[in-house]
Backbone:
């Protein structure tokens, strides 16, 4: 029913002084969000974009992902 549907998700993270960069747990979380949007099914063709905005000593990081539901 969801096959071929495009899904998107994002997670954000705050990195103070560069000591806590975004890690694999955030990547796992964004993939889980994509799978939830597919009704728990698989996702294919996943692309990601990581962006960082730095304000003095704090970096605001965002991971955006999109993909397509499979059967």
Residues:
């Amino acid at each position: 029913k969801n096959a071929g549907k495009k899904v998107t998700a994002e997670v954000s993270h705050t990195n103070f002084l560069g000591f806590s960069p975004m890690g694999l747990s955030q990547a796992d979380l964004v993939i889980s969000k994509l799978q939830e949007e597919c009704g728990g099914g698989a996702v294919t063709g996943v692309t990601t974009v990581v962006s960082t905005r730095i304000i003095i000593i704090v970096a605001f990081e965002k991971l955006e992902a999109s993909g397509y539901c499979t059967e």
Q: What stands out?
A: The mean pLDDT is 92. DSSP finds one helix and three strands in the chain.
